[in-house]
Amino acid sequence: MNVNIMNVDYSTKIPNNVNLSEDRQVLKALEGWHPGYIDWWHDMGPDGFQQSLIYLRTAYSVDPRGWAKFDYVKMPDYRWGILLAPQEENRTIPFGEHFGEPAWQEVPGEHRAMLRRLIVIQGDTEPASVEQQRHLGKTAPSLYDLRNLFQVNVEEGRHLWAMVYLLQKYFGRDGREEADELLRRRSGDADSPRMLGAFNEKTPDWLSFFMFTYFTDRDGKMQLHSLAQSGFDPLSRTCRFMLTEEAHHMFVGETGITRVVQRTCDAMREAGIDDPADIAKVRGLGVIDLPTIQKKLNLHYSLSLDLFGSEVSTNAANAFNAGIKGRYRETQIEDDHRLQSDTYPVLKLVNGEIKRVNEPALTALNMRLRDDYTQDCVKGMLRWNKVIATAGYDYKLTLPNVAFHRAIGEFRDVHATPDGVLIDDATWARRKHEWLPSTSDGDFIASLMTPVTEPGAFAAWISAPKVGIDNKPGDFEYVKIET
Ligand SMILES: [Fe+2]
Ligand SMILES: [Fe+2]
User: What's the 361 CA to ligand 2 centre distance in angstroms?
Assistant: First the structure.
């Protein structure tokens, strides 16, 4: 393996392992884009803390065994760079009509528009999440959590750079225009919103943040896995490295929710509460009751399912046929990787009932990826439910039915309970706050969101993590706050 590819050149203003110093045109384009990015970071990145020293990891190689270096950094000084996983020698296109042909090192002309669109959509989600999370620093439950938030934020910023690099290097003038547009759209903006629904929602509190990093970053993981299979090799290599960073974001979500559930169970035990559904009593302890955690879960899971698009989609089929976007773990699947005559079971609405219907596997690729996603989501649920069971409570967090609270796909025009029972509009209107957070649920959670900034201390609604970041001790000062 080429050592130069593994290590990152920090001599240029933009750290990279793609030889930017010899790629003057692209370097110039990126340097031209840089000031706009910094402006965006100051306008829309974390509110406050820009002068604080944050204990962050920065990528200095793409070696999976040790690519990160930890140190105190001011966020605006973070070295956002371009990092691609090493090129695999003789890599071939692993699926679609071009199956087995050498992977493309340049954009295939006939698929240029489709490829650019997929890169732009992925790129748009990255700054969007930073915008959604920008107010959370002010209410962090600990310095440990504050540091994790900022780590996620700077890396989402780097993921934007990753997509912008592809646009500027491979798509010429319209790539540069798209790169500018990525800095212009804003999450939740009435005139110029981000491209996908879930990325225009608010992330009002830390439970939402953990749900977002668990469920919505996991959609990102699935999309990146599919794009990492791409026949367009630079996209594949980019996504492969992004996935190593993404793992931490989902760790933050999974352990965050575990710690909230743990604290709630501990508090209920200490107070001798036997019924976890006694919401008023549990809230009286200053912790978040399990039924409210379930409502937040219902919200974020259903919003994230919408990100997979329509269950049956010719766009998905076209992207697969073209060799642009594959399946989750494509190379490990044992079939012909062309899917011309295969079928896949899709949940559909048939005469007012939810039924499994076989569809051509090619058009059902979104459904398949969504199924893979759901399976991946289940793992964390098992962990959270184990915490609840170990504490001696007969209560289970569950994923709602796919027909529940959907805005895209087969179930967008119907209402369903989390158990998948179809209900009419009036019933939905009357009962939806049994299943989704109400204003008063939000107000209660907001009332707990007071910042804790003493090293080693944690807000009363969340337990301490089992291990520190970079194996630091419990009272480590992850953020040196400077106002
Ligand atoms: Fe990302
Ligand atoms: Fe992420």
Answer: 29
